[in-house]
Write a structure and sequence with these properties.
Layout lengths: L18 H18 L4 H12 L3 H4 L2 H13 L8 H7 L3
Amino acid sequence: MNETTAPEPEPEPETAIDPARAEHMAWVKERALEYADQHDTASAMSSLIQDLGQRPDTADSIGIVTDLMMPLAMMGDFERPGELRKFIEGFS
């Protein structure tokens, strides 16, 4: 008797989105956007740093805040209406 086994499932691609990570990122953005809507750039950045650091799979994104967002804020880029919201919504 020649038994065959079911083929191994294909591994998920590296680009697959972890639902728990996606849910956490949505929550992180929602909290930061609350500050953005109050025109409070410093608190939005602080919120992002704190909340991104809560999970190992989002902690690497803190560098985006410190290396990119902070200089943009210092140059006044987020003083234009909607720019801070647009930046936060673009996070992934």
